[in-house]
Design a protein that fits this description.
Radius of gyration: 20 Å
Shape: flat
Structural class: mainly alpha
Number of helices: 4
Order of helices and strands: HHHH
Amino acid sequence: MKDGPFDGDISDASNRRNANLDLLRAAAIVAVVFFHVCQMSPVPLTRLMNVASFGQYGVDLFFVLSGWLIGGLYWKEYNKFGNIDIGRFWLRRWLRTIPPYLIALLLSWLAVWMSREEPFDLGYLIFIQNYYDNIPFFLVSWS
């Protein structure tokens, strides 16, 4: 029995990306970047911040879209094979997200080490930096 939002045969048409969701995701990213640029401007941008402040919701939108897309991958696999190898499913997700995280972490730490010779914090490798009172560097690693 196949239940879920992606019932039916898995065809090439169902494996294509949804351009509307990609556009919405891009809009969320642009909104967040715009918010941070205005927020960090050395010159007060009061009028722009009235609009840019909505960018703080871009992160929420991005997480909702990510959940939707990952859920879609889950249901597509379920419909194709009739079950889910959850270990394999998560391994594929990790192989897509962990390498870019590690590259960004390395670049961030190298910049910190070059500017203030701060040692590397191993907590970033096991994702416990969210529990620190103050994250020493790479503040966006929480996501």
